[in-house]
Amino acid sequence: xTASWYGPGFHGKQTSSGERYDMYGFTCAHKxxxxxxxxxxxxxxxxxxxxxxxNDRGPxxxxxxxxxxxxxxxxxxxxxxxxxxVKVEHLGRDxxxxxxxxxxxxxxxxxxxQVGSFTEQENALRLKDALELGYKDVYITTAxxxxxxxHRVRLGKFNTRERAYxxxxxxxxxxxxxxxxxxxxx
Length: 186
Fold this sequence. Notes:
Layout: E1 2-6, E2 27-29, E3 37-43, E4 49-56, E5 66-69, H1 70-76, E6 83-93, E7 101-103, E8 111-118, H2 121-131, E9 138-145, E10 148-158, H3 161-174, E11 178-182
Parallel strand pairs: 1-5, 2-4, 7-11
Antiparallel strand pairs: 1-6, 2-5, 3-4, 3-6, 8-10, 8-11, 9-10
């Protein structure tokens, strides 16, 4: 498995799990592992290990499997080379990352799943990119509320509330905040 790292350009920004990225922490980005997955990452060249928690999606560069926080990458010695071959051991999962499904519509449908709502468009685009690693029909709508523009990241169009709930539950189990709401187009 090939690991890389990310740092200053993302420090303090929101991760796909909703947490703020701390480049000095011991976290990582993975394309599909549920948020809260705990991993022990060992850099094969140095033999050094770091325990990290998946709290983001990525990497978005081909040929890379894991993006480590700067703190974790520094701990194992991968900062200098930038990438390297790592061994990954699963250590379990922090279940605090599992979310509940919310509802804002009791209508007859169709329905969609809202996964995020942001005042900064960049955050919405980043979440959309992350979701598209594993899902189809991801789109962004905008809404004006009290003079403020919100960029809402949504997924799918479902004819029944139950079908929307089933899909939202999968996302919530992965660690995404979800809200089943009325479909407005996308």
